[in-house]
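chain below, 274 aa
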Amino acid sequence: MSLVVKNLRIEIGDRAVVDDVSFSVPEGARVGLIGESGSGKSLTALAILGLLPDGAHASGSILWDGREILGLPDRELARLRGDDIGMVFQEPRTALNPIRAVGRQIGESVRIHEGVSRREALRRAVAEAERVALPDPERIVSRYPHQLSGGQRQRVAIAMALACRPRLLIADEPTTALDVTIQAGILSLLRSLVHDVGMSLVFITHDLAVLAQVATHAVVLEHGRVVEEGAVTDLLRAPSSPVTQALLRDATATLWHPELPARGVATDDAEETP
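prediction:
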């Protein structure tokens, strides 16, 4: 097992916002954390990386390759972030620095973790931009976040997370802010990257239709507790908890909405370049 979370509890003040959450992510597995807003899925991901907000306290156990990482000093956790575990946040506009060219941002973790020169970091940035299918990567690395489309900014965020070849990628609702057709392209990209590199994936979402496209196993959260887990195909076929049943109804309604294009149709967002 690469990641094992046991009896995780997160408290803010005197209130438990995550309580007794346990799950595991074997090498090469694709696991989804799914639930409505406020279910605790994003806080769980932040606890794994030691990025909980001020005032939040986590207890329980988080094992990475058998090593306890919950409560590690920030300096040791910083070595894990990017190097072993990468993270893609929901909104790339806030995750990216608006006054730095995206190539410098992609290459920054390479410089920090591998100590390469600026020239080598830029070369790696171009290679990562190409890897995530950004158009004209040598040109696009010199641009700033506001000069890119939403889909392109998210691809930059993915390139940043993958630059040091982490063994685990945590993606926190990475397609929520995107148009449905662009969303399909990002999901297709994540599937191919995980398959090609062989890394593990934790994908966080409130949308069961989206989860079905990238994950094979799901952990369903409600009010900070696990209410159901199992193979995604089983949850789609016969969900047992009311929460999962509601998520399935929402997914079915979205899939068959007459005004929306069908999910899973991959599109190229290269034409969005301003």
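The beta strands are 3-12, 15-25, 30-34, 56-64, 67-68, 85-88, 168-172, 200-205, 217-222, 225-231. Residues 256-274 have pLDDT under 50 and may be disordered.
thats it, cya
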